[in-house]
What does this fold into?
Amino acid sequence: FVPYYEKQIDLATGDIVGFEMLARWNSPSLGVISPEIFIPIAEESGLIYVIGRWVIRDACARLAAWHRVDRTQPLGIAVNISPLQFRHPDFVACVSQALVDFSIQPGLLTLEITESSLIENIDSVVARLNELKRVGVIVSVDDFGTGYSSLYYLKHLPLDEIKIDKSYVRDILDDSNDAAIVESIIAIAKNLQLRTVAEGVETEDQARILRALGCGLHQGYLYSRPLPAAEFERLYIGKSQML
Ligand code: C2E
Ligand code: CA
Ligand code: CA
It folds into this structure.
């Protein structure tokens, strides 16, 4: 597996605030395989636990290495967590062990979980999220708006961030319903003191509207494609001016 990285930027300051790690499978016979293909297979076969553990540890190792090169900017990293991985009894222990092993400040690690991780057995989800809160990591709801999008869990769960799914961002200029939904998501998040991040920002016009609606944390092809480690580090790590 190879990690790719996509930067997240804050439009208010122009700074890079962190990176999302996106896994690829580099198959000797098939070439680069998308996570949309191999993650469901890994979930069916149970391999997702091993892959998920590797993703968390690799992200922490990489972050530690970047901090050694550039101590001025404590960058954060976000990793994607599959629902099965989130429910595994050893999940929280795996996260805290990685933070300790690589001496990572917990607030620099964001776990992106999807709505489907949150809907089953609310009591155990609350307990798990409270454990993660005690560890100190940031919890983000990924692909927000594509699943159950329950206001109940936004109210009851200790979450930190909502990621507005790229399907809403894509049509925000042409579809007034999408624009209205995005506006409402941002307003609810703001009132609940949750941060919002927009993914899949491809054009200046999309960026402008999102910013006008109150969402200034963006990622997407407008800023950068996901890049493999070597290229990514050449561009961004150890530079005093990173953008
Ligand atoms: P996601 O978490 O919603 O990630 C965003 C996807 O949108 C990524 O696809 C990214 O490359 C792509 N993207 C980024 N900017 C743009 C843009 O401006 N326009 C468009 N059209 N697309 C953009 P990718 O890398 O193929 O990943 C697909 C999904 O696979 C991810 O969706 C995530 O759910 C999952 N995934 C990726 N890495 C991992 C992993 O390490 N573990 C798990 N469990 N899932 C992963
Ligand atoms: Ca994600
Ligand atoms: Ca998404």
